[in-house]
Known about the structure:
Number of helices: 8
Oligomer: single chain
Amino acid sequence: MVKVSEELVHQVLRTLLEYDTRCCERGACVRPKNSPFHVLRLPSISLRDYVIRVITYSACSAECFGIALVYLKRIQANKGPDYISLHSLHRLFITAVLLATKYCDDLYFNNRFYAKVAGVSTSEMNELELDFLAVIRCNLHVERSELENALFCAPSQEHFPIASTTATSESTSASKEELLPTYCSSSSSSSSSSSSSSSISSSC
């Protein structure tokens, strides 16, 4: 668990909420039937609390969050301005962070751990990752100018403290999971193949 930078939370949250605000202003939020990212009901956890949860437990470098925001822009560019809303932001964000961590950091947690952060099953996390890659056409490279624009300034250790890196070994992931509070993603996905989303949370 890492100390959360309030400035980082604010920057990320502001960018994410802009997607939903623009969508609501047009009154045209899209919820595709076959999208694993879109849920029928809004998640029980607020977007702010979810962002804090992801930043706290992902233990990745701060640059990863800027890269994740770049990936979300690519999602919007390929799927249209009404694709990203509060019905899809939670799952899109955690998947973007997962891919950004794998692209940017040398050491990172496996999908099972990120699934627990997201409150979904490991198999669904795998599905989200593959679908996200398909939408952005596996374009994970990010130019420095894109990264700086994503957070309105260049990420640095002074403003966004870098979390200590962690290993991908099963023992390290297991010890980290012991500190991770359980979150149940109880909202149903629009995709029929995502019905197992709460299998990870059987203890809830």
